[in-house]
Amino acid sequence: MLLATRFEEISDIATLETRWRALEAKAEGAHSFFLRWTWIGSWLGALREAGKALPQLLVVEAADGSDAALALIGRGEARRKLGKLPALWLNEAGDRDGDRPFIEYNGVLCATGQEPAVVHSFCAAMAGQSDWKVLHLSGLPFGSPLIDVPGVRRRVLRDASPVYHVDLRQVWGCGGDYLSLLSANSRNQIRRSVKEEGGAPRTEVAGDAATALRWLDEIVRLGSGRRANNAWDNALFVDFARRITLAGLADGSVELLRIANVEEEAIGYLLNFLWAGRAMNYQSAFAVPRTPKSKPGLMAHAAAVDRYQARGLDVYSLLAGKDQYKQSLSTGAEMLEWWTLERYDWRLEAEALARRVLRR
């Protein structure tokens, strides 16, 4: 069944919030946190505050005229080897600063039971737009059918990233002894670090907006300037982080943790999302290690695992990334994929030919 689709301009974020939240209620909690209004509304607010163009709203309409699905479609130009090309982005702006929040578990917000028809309608709607050469589908779960847009020349998998996680049910199964699930090297590093810091760390939770904003300022201080292209050096991203933290405090879907040593000094901060039995570490910042054996990051994540397994959650996710520390802390992983769908254009054909030659 092909549902009716249309594109709308976003003129009022508050009006869109009402629609989006109404559709969330029909999704029965099965959708991604990154498709909830907590994320979407914070992102749109940060875009508008920064003076960025807002994406369009893609509406998939049910037979009774209600919203069966909603998504945001960014429009712009993609920089390619041989020039710029008109492009679309799913739930992204197509702007470097605007997409610093980095969406994962991407998709279309959809009422429960409508998924097959919505996927069909989404693919048809994208195929029906004549003003693009490249369609970006970022952070899709492995095997997503959203890449099956008809009429494209090629589907290019730009990246596949592991999402390392800790299965908290395994932690329960070994009596809460998380470290016993890790390699001997990781286990020893954490234990040595705890000894260097004088004992097990203490976890605090920001319980109000004033505390959260004060801790976020400390995260910005710790995170800024540490490496090139750092998110915490980006004003739009910092604004987004503040918005989503405050929005999530209201409904308990975002937690900001301060991990302190026995001397009450902060060794790290973790900004986590809580949704559908998962805690997801979105951002973090750590103090400079006091000694070569001190590992503030490893200690902070281990403390978070203890917190969330005690609360009865199922998974502590480190979200997408190939960092060694994520692998060393994990008990498993799943994959997210970044795709570009390309229509015919001589510049894209030249790129594809060059890639084939280089592979040979």
Question: Given the structure, what is the number of helices?
Answer: 10
Could you tell me how far the N terminus lies from the C terminus, measured between alpha carbons in angstroms?
Answer: 44 Å
Percent of residues in helices: 25-40%
What integer is the average pLDDT?
A: 95
- Using the coordinates shown, work out and report the CATH topology of the largest domain: Aminopeptidase
CATH homologous superfamily of the largest domain? Gcn5-related N-acetyltransferase (GNAT)
> What would you say the CATH architecture of the largest domain is?
3-Layer(aba) Sandwich
Radius of gyration: 22 Å
Give the overall silhouette: globular
Number of strands: 13
How much of the polypeptide forms β-strand, as a percent range? 25-35%
Element-by-element helix/strand order: EHHEEEEHEEHHEHHEEEHEHEH
Overall tally of structural domains: 2
What does this structure look like?
The chain is of the alpha+beta class and 360 residues long. It has two domains: 4-153 and 343-359, Aminopeptidase; 163-334, Gcn5-related N-acetyltransferase (GNAT) (Aminopeptidase, 3-Layer(aba) Sandwich), CATH 3.40.630. The protein contains ten helices and 13 strands. Strands 1, 2, 3, 4, 5, 6, 7, 8, 9, 10, 11, 12 and 13 form a 13-stranded mixed β-sheet that branches. Strand 10 and strand 11 form a beta hairpin. Helix 5 packs across helix 8 and helix 6 runs antiparallel to helix 7 (235-251). The longest helix has 17 residues, at 235-251. It starts with a strand and ends with a helix.
